[in-house]
Amino acid sequence: MPGTWRRILLESTGSTNDFLKEGLLGLSDRTVVRAVRQTSGKGRLGRTWESPPGGLYASILLVPPPSPEHASRVALLIADIICGELLRAGIGACVKWPNDVIADDGKIAGILPEYGTFPVPWFVTGMGVNLAAAPSIPGRNGPPPAAWARFAPPPDPDALLDRLLLELDEAWPDRTLDPISDRAEGITGRLWMSGREVEVVRGERLDTGIVKGIDAQGRLLLSTGSGMIYLDSGELSPVRSR
After folding, report:
1. How far apart are CA 182 and CA 14, in angstroms?
2. Mean pLDDT for each 10-residue chunk of the chain (242 residues)?
3. Which residue, 10, 48, 67, 103, could crosslink 35 as a Cys pair with Cβ 3.0–4.6 Å?
């Protein structure tokens, strides 16, 4: 079974992911850092993650890391766990492939996994959950931000983090194993835009099709005019009006 988590609480930091990566040689396996405030939180594709007061902003460190193919799926597992917490609070929520959580078509949480080999092999995953307030992000593409408090009284950030870490350990007790192989069906049942037409952007490529679910490797199953395709990554959004 997994051991205990070593906790670090910061009043403010640029990014909890960066804090762990910058301190790799001085930090132990299963370190988790939570910041009351981030000044330059990170999202996918180089975006910033806004950090309004009262939210949960935390990152975990695993050394040695899971294998690269497993590491890329941890975001889906954590998104599913956060989604479950929202559902238990009576808040309708969905997993937005590959690493977000949506409530009432607003983004309420995001997860950012990162991994590398220098100065030692490492794996860091950050998670941000809007609890008390949603950030204001002018000009943002994709779902608008949402906050837990819009739907129900939000939990204490530390209490929520405790539950998320406990559920993560229960769902993925052995990091040598695939984190989602036995959860793909459940995640499929919670997928945002399931059964609807979407666009998925991968670099210069745009695929359009119907979301059919995810497979055991966490790939998005997209039914297109030329058949089923399996996507390892991409930016998913509803089809724009033509």
Report:
1. 35
2. 90 94 96 92 55 91 94 95 98 96 95 94 96 76 89 97 97 95 94 96 93 95 96 91 55
3. 10
